[in-house]
């Protein structure tokens, strides 16, 4: 298993734990009378689960197991895979911080951080697709 | 990788980029409020990423990698898998685009029914391939 895949998979497992813990916190709002403001964490919960865990696990496993690109360069660009890894996770962590802060404070700084987060995650998706595309081929 | 898997997986990559783009627009709207109508994209964002990207990638990979039969056709009958591809993508398009094209709720229903039929067609091929290798 290549190093970048190990990072993708281990990070995806961390996000799985974080997202399920957040899901438990959201489920505790009513029985524990938690402040209604904790509801702003709902979109974070879904995105940690579906982007941080599911998509990230797929990105890592696809880079590892899909058909070889060429003999010299079997997995396509490892550099692109690393860039996509950092963009995806930087984007997610920024969102984790900026989305609740933006909902609560409405200062423009947090809103612009969300724009950076959106751009980083979109760029990660495009880089992953571009790096994977030539490996999806008939044998 | 068989041609049908190539088609499924490449289409799923296109859905990934489309779904991430829709999500980015919604997040930008949430941050700086420059696309007020971006919230209307939320159902399409979910449909495209869940069915168009994730489910389609799984279907393409499963068709490629599940155990094969010892005799031809080694991956079973292709016809229901081709049908599944067409129905799934028609269903995603109808469910995602329907609300923009018409106020009628029938497009969403038609899309979801196409998705159900796609899964049934796909399962009819995959089910007998869930078996020990070499049998």
Distance between the amino and carboxyl termini of chain B: 21 Å
What are the segments of chain A in which pLDDT stays under 50 over at least 5 consecutive residues?
none
Topology of chain B as a string of helices (H) and strands (E) = HHHH
Q: Which word captures the global form of chain B?
A: elongated
Beta-strand fraction estimate of chain A:
under 5%
What structural class do you assign from the helix and strand content of chain B?
A: mainly alpha
Task: Round the Cα radius of gyration of chain B to an integer and report it.
Answer: 17 Å
Question: What's the story with the biggest beta sheet of chain B?
Answer: none
| H/E topology pattern of chain A | HHHH
Backbone shape of chain A: elongated
Number of separate helices of chain B: 4
- Overall helicity of chain B: over 70%
Q: Strand count, sense and closure of the main sheet of chain A?
A: none
Question: Helices and strands in order, then pairings?
Answer:
The complex is a heterodimer of chains A (139) and B (135).
Chain A: H1 3-27, H2 42-65, H3 78-105, H4 108-132
Helix pairs in contact in A: 1-2, 2-3, 3-4
Chain B: H1 3-32, H2 42-65, H3 79-101, H4 106-126
Helix pairs in contact in B: 1-2, 2-3, 2-4, 3-4
């Amino acid at each position: 298993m290549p190093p970048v895949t190990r990072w993708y998979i281990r990070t995806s497992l961390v996000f799985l734990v974080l997202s399920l813990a957040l899901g438990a916190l959201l489920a505790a709002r009513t029985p524990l009378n938690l402040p209604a403001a904790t509801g702003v964490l709902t979109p974070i919960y879904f995105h940690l689960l579906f982007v941080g865990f599911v998509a990230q696990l797929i990105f890592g496993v696809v880079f590892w197991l899909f058909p070889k690109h060429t003999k010299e360069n079997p997995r396509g660009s490892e550099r692109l895979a690393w860039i996509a890894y950092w963009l995806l996770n930087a984007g997610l962590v920024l969102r984790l911080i900026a989305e609740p802060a933006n909902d609560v404070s409405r200062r423009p700084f947090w809103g612009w951080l969300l724009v950076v987060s959106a751009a980083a995650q979109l760029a990660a998706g495009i880089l992953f697709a571009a790096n994977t595309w030539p490996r999806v081929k008939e044998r | 990788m068989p041609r049908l898997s190539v088609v499924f997986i490449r289409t799923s990559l296109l859905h990934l980029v489309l779904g991430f783009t829709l999500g980015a627009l919604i997040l930008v709207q949430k941050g700086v409020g420059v696309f007020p109508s971006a919230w209307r994209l939320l159902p399409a964002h979910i449909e495209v990423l869940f069915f168009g990207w994730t489910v389609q990638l799984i279907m393409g990979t499963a068709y490629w990698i599940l155990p094969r039969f010892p005799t031809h056709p080694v991956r079973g009958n292709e016809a229901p898998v081709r049908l599944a591809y067409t129905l799934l993508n028609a269903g995603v398009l109808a469910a995602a685009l329907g609300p923009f094209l018409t106020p009628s709720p029938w497009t969403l229903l038609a899309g979801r029914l196409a998705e159900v039929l796609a899964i049934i067609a796909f399962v009819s091929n995959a089910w007998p391939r869930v078996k020990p290798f070499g049998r």
